[in-house]
Amino acid sequence: MTRSRATLRRAPSRAAIAMIALLATAGCSESSSSSGSPRDTEITVAAIAPIKTLDVAQIEVERSIASLVTEPLERTKSDGSFTPRLATSVRVAPKKLVYDLEPSAKFSDGKPVTPEDVAFSIKRLTDPKTAPVAASLLVAVKEVAATGPHQITVTSDGSDPSLRNNIAFAVRVVEKANVGANPKDFGSASAPPIGSGPYVVSKFSTDEVVLDKNSSYWGEEPAFKTIKSKFLPDDNTARLAMRSGDLDVKFLRDVGTARQWESVPGASLAALPTTSIDYLSFDVAAPPFDDVHVRRAFAHAVDRKGLIDIVYGGRARPLIGMLTPEELSSISSPKEAEEILSGLPTYKYDLAAAKAEFAKSKYPNGFSIKVNVGSNIAYGEKTMLILQENLKPLGIEIKINPVSEDEWTAPLIAHKDLGMQTFSYGPLIADPARILSLMVSSSEAVPSGQNIANFTSKKLDSDVATLTGSPDKAQRLAAAKSILEAVAEEVPYIPLFNKESITVTSEGFRYNTDGADYGDYSTGAWIDHIEPVS
Amino acid sequence: MKFTVVFIQRRLVALTLLLLIVSFAVFSLLDLSPGSPEEALLGPEARTNPASVEAIREEYHLDQPLLQRYWNWLADVAHLDLGRSTESGEAVTHVIAQRFMLTTELGLFAAVIVLLIGVPVGMLAGLRRGSSFDRVVTSAAVFLASAPPFAVGILLILMFGVWLDWLPPFGVGDGVVDRLRHLVLPALALASAALAIVVRQTRAAALGVIDQDYVLFARARGLSRRTIFLNYAFHNAALPVVTTAGLLLVFSLSGAVFIETVFGLPGVGSLLIESINSRNIPVVQGLTLLTAAIVVLGNLVTDLLALALDPRTRYAGTA
């Protein structure tokens, strides 16, 4: 057994969790390797749950590993940019996406990747019975057809401007015959997928999945000889395993543990910005949060900087608007995004200002509220404790009610007794349309909807329609700006923090952050950023 | 003999009733608790897509009323079909079978440690009451009984996996020898609390036996210490030890949940946690039934052993 190995800890076991970083359940993986050329090196990847499937149609898919075996057409980044993979170029026409495919691409069994295989890979994911989560991203797809020897065309109903992004995120190209031969268990241990990726599955059991270099890979030679993904759910054990040399890289699930990881001898931490946001919401349709002065008083009473230090060990930044500059820049230049966000009204941590705002409200004598704090919201309880203390002098009593994730979710889904909520959101794809439309649409201010502030207006609905439906970037940006301004002015939500994505590598490795993106975890690009150091 | 048969029959009837009650309780509790499988499975974004929700509800019959679903489930169970996992779509029996072997190996390994170390050490401590050996054993037992198994696990990993680097800190291993090496630390951690109980129980039993007249008489007859130890003290002290074994079984099953997580072992303990988190009701149900059955059957075996060991219990039954 090789003594020095690397272990990559995997992301949320389920795509559903990956989609929503409610739980700060961003990707987590770890890897390790021996000295010498990385091309002869064995890497071990630790998984927080046993890998059940490598088929992206399944909710439980482990994308970080699946994406090394079956490839995407393109890789996406959180700034909205694309890197070619199986598709060498993409032409975007109204209601059409035309993908030119890499002619030399072949599956690990030697068969060429045909347009029929690619069309099949997309089509199967549009069926909610086969792929419930992926299908929700591909609802706009109407038809997929092979339109040339190395070309496919996706025809859409035009309702989703982020469709290209969604396809890049959701689709991994599989061999049609391989799926057909294993209709029930494709992707599982009994029928691992045959893909065109840099690695092939050589062992698949509940405790580990082993990937070997695909010797006939059509692209650049893979960086490591072997990648092992091992089941290692406990954080304490993972740190000890890194100390003993059994684990070299870990994508932190909870950035608040970063300081504990810093104490592992020889370990180094690499931080990347994410598009996740933590925020508070207020039900503007019911007392006492139907008064904007109450909401602004709360906004002045949150000590973001203090909380970042306590909750995330300094590994987060205060949010100005309801999304990150990086996410907004997917439809604008970084400079424009920065300008829009810095131009928004802000509420400094200032208890005197909070008092002054509150005095202007309908409830100047104070009130009492109960706030559910879900165990899945890392910052929830500490933020509430600070608010509780800071608002007590104004006569506001906050009763903190710690609850399980299920108990916390139930009223949100029922859309009842919303009051004040703590919430985290990790957009699946980088496009402001997703998050802003969910937060302010009237169609979302219903049971199961995401507009838990009940913050609606005709203007907001029309802005959402432009933002989600218009092909014109400038119009979309103007709509996004309008929504962001309305939220900042009326404070149905208080943006709090944007946390980092952290990768820990053991002695002998580093995670090169040049050109890296936190979404690399699910696209498979993460492996290219792990480098041995002498 | 007749008494034993009736005894077993009664226990099996009780087992069936217990399994029915437990399964219905778990089914109802999971149904009543907030959240639902389709929400847990799809997440907030996809659950707003009606087609996805409908597909999930239809596949797992979530649109039927509770009693109807329970009845259907029960009818399937009667045919040994525990349903399909809501996560992977695999048969629940297959999902559990995949993970069960590892937990069994871990449990057996821990049981061997408990019996091979706990019984002789407790016996010696009892026979040498008040000696320094007895004092060390008693103190160690108090320490182990009060230390949570997961903390013992972390301590063992630190000592033997990191500082001394003798054993692998986590994982399952390939092949018999490698598997055994990987299971040493988790088995020790799992055995720790049970070991403490067995040592104390055996010591107490030995203390009770050593003062008996028949031991004094055996000594007076000039029998060797070894003969007295094995034929008199050991045999007579075995009964209370065996009766605690049923308790230890429950202890080990609950301990396995933590130990498997700490040591990265994909057994049924970690499967239970994963399934509860994802509201995978068919798998949780399957595991609950399995656990209840193991506990009841385990206790039945210990009771039968007690019957075999102590004739008085048999006479009591026929009287």
TrEMBL record, chain A:
Query: Subcellular location, in the record's words?
Result: Cell envelope
Q: Name one Pfam family in it.
A: SBP_bac_5
Domain Solute-binding protein family: residue ranges: 82-444
Residue ranges that the Swiss-Prot or TrEMBL entry lists as coiled coil? none
Task: For this UniProt record, give its keywords in alphabetical order, as a comma-separated list.
Answer: Signal, Transport
Signal peptide per UniProt: 1-26
Q: Which SUPFAM superfamilies match?
A: Periplasmic binding protein-like II (SSF53850)
Q: What is its main location?
A: other
Record-stated family: Belongs to the bacterial solute-binding protein 5 family.
Q: What is this protein called?
A: ABC transporter substrate-binding protein
TrEMBL record, chain B:
Give the transmembrane region(s).
12-30, 106-127, 139-163, 183-199, 229-251, 287-309
Stated membrane topology is:
Multi-pass membrane protein
> What UniProt keywords apply to this chain's record, in alphabetical order?
Cell membrane, Membrane, Transmembrane, Transmembrane helix, Transport
Name the InterPro entries for this protein: BPD_transp_1_N, MetI-like, MetI-like_sf
As for subcellular location, the record says: Cell membrane
Cite the ABC transmembrane type-1 domain residue spans from the record.
100-306
Q: Does the keyword Nucleus apply?
A: no
Broad class of where this protein is predominantly found: membrane
> Hey, which family's this protein in?
Belongs to the binding-protein-dependent transport system permease family.
Output this protein's name: ABC transporter permease
Q: Which organism's genome codes for this protein?
A: Kribbella sancticallisti
